[in-house]
């Protein structure tokens, strides 16, 4: 029997249920993966509540990414073998003991990562890569302002931004989160409750402002960001955990600024070649030890609701993983 977290009615994490199902037979082109760990992302919470742009038909299993071992290969599946250690990419369905997927959904697990790190790598770091490289086009010497730097995508942006040669200003809600951001390369640290970040950015940059803003928070944070940007700034809209912000067009005009939406997954679906370039770079940087997700919590599968609450309550620092063993 296979355990899976199931959403039968949209709502809070506690409305989900852990259920058991018989393992189904493979189709010829499919692969069975024994899941060792699954990564949590904020879209999992939104999807279970019916508040995400993707609305799977009920019932469904949440979870966008996992890592594990290939345990069975269909007769027509190519490029994969039993025993391969892999990352599994999904739109939903990862919170389970076992996943039946196609070879195109599999990526080799970096040898430098354990299963929890592998299961929490590609979504967060893929989003940061797409934001900073494909959309924001960060250049060496530019000032990058990263909001929510204690979160999974925020920490990834700190790492990648520093690797690209930017001066990184990290904002977060606690000293503990900022300490992790500093360990990942942040040059300047700002706690929201101690100094308005717009004032801090102006102070740090001698009034010039940030060249690129990485914003997974939204709401008032997005609106205040427009008041501490440099000429030609790019404001990257990653998400809206703090609400949906409004763009002041006069401020954008005065600064010659751009607001860019970031949808890493959709960009790959529109242009698969773009995704392959991103994936190759992320795997190379992982093997070289340049990037590594910070997994602050590892919980057993039956604690799925508690794990999702860590994201909702912003208690996680970096990433949260569900462990199957």
N-end to C-end Cα span: 14 Å
What is the CA-based Rg, rounded?
20 Å
Instruction: Give the C-level CATH assignment of the largest domain.
Output: Alpha Beta
Count of strand segments: 15
Main sheet summary? 7 strands, mixed
Q: Can you tell me the residue ranges where pLDDT is under 50 for at least 5 consecutive residues?
A: none
Order of helices and strands: EEEHEEEEHHEHEHEHEHEHEHHEHE
State the share of residues found in helices, binned by percent.
25-40%
Q: How large is the share of residues in beta strands?
A: 25-35%
Give the name of the CATH superfamily of the largest domain.
Answer: Medium-chain alcohol dehydrogenases, catalytic domain
Number of helices, counting only DSSP H or I runs of 4 residues or more: 11
Structural class: alpha/beta
CATH architecture of the largest domain: Alpha-Beta Complex
CATH topology of the largest domain: Quinone Oxidoreductase, Chain A, domain 1
Mean pLDDT: 96
Total domain units: 2
> Rough shape?
globular
Give a quick summary of the entry:
The protein is α/β, with parallel strands linked by helices and 325 residues long. It is built from 11 helices and 15 strands. The strands form 3 sheets. Strands 3, 4, 5, 6, 7, 14 and 15 form a 7-stranded mixed sheet that branches. A 6-stranded parallel sheet has the order 10-9-8-11-12-13, with helices on both faces. It has a two-stranded antiparallel ribbon with strand order 1-2.
């Amino acid at each position: 029997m296979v355990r899976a977290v199931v959403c039968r009615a949209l709502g809070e994490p506690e409305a989900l249920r852990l259920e058991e199902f018989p393992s189904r037979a493979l189709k010829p082109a499919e692969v069975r993966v024994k899941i060792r760990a699954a990564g949590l992302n904020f879209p999992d919470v939104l999807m279970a509540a019916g508040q995400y742009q993707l609305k799977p038909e009920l019932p469904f299993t949440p979870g966008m990414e996992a890592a594990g071992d290939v345990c069975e290969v269909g007769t027509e599946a190519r490029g994969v073998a039993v025993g391969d250690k892999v990352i599994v990419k999904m739109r939903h369905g990862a919170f389970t003991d076992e996943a039946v997927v196609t070879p195109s959904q599999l990526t080799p697990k970096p040898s430098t990562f354990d299963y929890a790190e592998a299961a929490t790598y590609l979504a967060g770091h893929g989003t940061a890569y797409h934001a900073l490289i494909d959309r924001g086009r960060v250049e060496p010497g530019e000032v990058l302002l990263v909001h929510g730097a204690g979160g999974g995508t925020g920490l990834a942006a700190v790492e990648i931004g520093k690797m690209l040669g930017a001066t990184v200003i990290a904002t977060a809600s606690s000293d503990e989160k900022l300490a992790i951001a500093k360990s990942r390369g942040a040059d300047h640290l700002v706690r929201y409750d101690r100094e308005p970040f717009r004032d801090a950015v102006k102070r740090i940059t001698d009034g010039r402002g940030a060249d690129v803003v990485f914003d997974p928070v939204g709401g008032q944070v997005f609106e205040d960001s427009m008041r501490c940007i440099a000429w030609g700034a790019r404001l990257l809209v990653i998400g809206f955990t703090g609400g949906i912000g409004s763009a002041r067009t006069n401020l954008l005009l005065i600064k010659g600024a751009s607001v860019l939406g970031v949808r890493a997954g959709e960009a790959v679906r529109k242009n698969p070649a773009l995704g392959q370039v991103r994936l190759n770079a992320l795997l190379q940087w992982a093997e070289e030890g340049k990037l590594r997700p910070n997994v602050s919590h590892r919980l057993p599968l039956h604690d799925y609701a508690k794990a999702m609450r860590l994201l909702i309550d912003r208690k996680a620092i970096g990433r949260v993983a569900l462990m199957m063993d």
